[in-house]
Design goal:
This protein is an alpha+beta fold. The protein has 17 helices and eight strands. The chain has three domains: 127 residues, no CATH class; 166 residues, no CATH class; 83 residues, no CATH class. β2 and β3 form a beta hairpin. α13 packs across α15. It is elongated.
Amino acid sequence: MPFGPPPLSWIPPTDIEEVLFEAKQRNDWAAFYNALAYVNLYYQSDREMLDKTPELCPRRYFEDPHTGAMRWELFTDGMLPAPQPNVVYARARLWWISRVWSEKSPSWIAINPGSPCEVVLPYGPPGSTDWSQAAERAAEERISMRLRTLRVGGALHGPVAHGLACGALLCVNNGSLWNAMGWHGTGYAGERERLREWWGISTREEWQSALRDLLACESHSGVWDFVLSVRRSIARDFGGHVDVGYWRQAVANVLRARAGGSVTVSAEGVTRTEPDPSAEVEARVAGLQHLIGRITRYEARMRADGVLDENRYVSSVEAWDLGRASKMARWGLGARFGTLYEAEAAVIEAGRSAALSYRSWQDFSAGYILGRCLHFDEEEFGEWYTNMVDAHRILTSHPHSPWLNIPFR
């Protein structure tokens, strides 16, 4: 295992490489293996084979430049290069690395080769090495929610950083780097699976369409926009305070007026629109008033949990689309549906639109959380809600949070 001081200019890219380097310098291999067991690792794979048979998890081995022996090279996320079209990586945990050993495997694995925290370890049957035993102890543990920052190579200030910070709630929730523009995420195959399973996206054109809809804030229910816009109008008329009963009645009045039929006179003649059936109109009114109830209950809970200040309400749920747009840009890059240039341009646009729609990171966060809950949570106040509240608290309190260091406007 190579030792010696690091280059004077070397800065560990993330907290993970810092912990690994310090453990290596102390010869504290128990700490090194333990830290390695609780993070994601990446290895180079074969894109063509992954596209055909992703379940085979094809992996490439490389020759050790010092010994000539073949080894499996594994990287922590801070050590990954920018995505390239035909060089792709797969993601795994250390326990999986241990379990997929076979007699055809190389005799060594290399952690972060070529860096000051490089370590070369023997590779053998599961349980035959100290590191594989440590890996098994962490096998069932989820990657913890936390704020992680790419200190070297990641945007920390400016328009790109602002747009990346719009996706920070999800990054904190997943323990991923909030400011990694060169996104690898769950690995090439994992990002493709994510987009296919959650979004029905399997092509570049589908990714582009989904990204456009998100940036235009057209990927959520227009019904949500309607009821929130009525409340905004009332707030402007009455100086901010909105009585819920008055809001319900105003929504009903607008809906009934729109459904009452009309007469339009034009050069082509007179066009008449017949009124909608009364039963249908009243059913829509009841549905919208039920939605208002859901919104006010979520807002009350967010006030109790410190997401919303007292007497504040959510102005819109555009943040739900813009936050996802910030991530969709990166997911598409990780899946090689888009380029780094395209992803960066979309991230900047998401940040710019967010600054036009909201006043602060807190307002943006509340809009995002409400949209997420209206879409997923069904008023269970389960993990769809509680995870975001936990991420919100981290982002509004951690001294290195982008929300405390990047002006929202």
